[in-house]
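Blinded run. Sample ID left blank on purpose so nobody reads anything into the name before looking at the predicted structure. Input follows.
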Amino acid sequence: MLLLTIIEILSAGSLIGLILLQMQGSGLGNSFGGAGEFYRSKRSIEKILIWATVVVTVIFAINSILLLIPTK
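Blinded prediction complete.
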């Protein structure tokens, strides 16, 4: 149960960070030299961020469901 809780916290933090990195107008994207040019010239990085977000979201969702199962 402790391991699931740790995975939940880590996946939630990762998900927040990934979503902030994808924001083109604000967030953490501005720290990388301007979000507009960064995202327009680096399409492969944008795809990696999207796939990473999907994977972390699935991990978060499955882990949340597993945490709902009562333990004895």
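Unblinding after everyone has recorded impressions. DSSP finds three helices and no strands in the chain.
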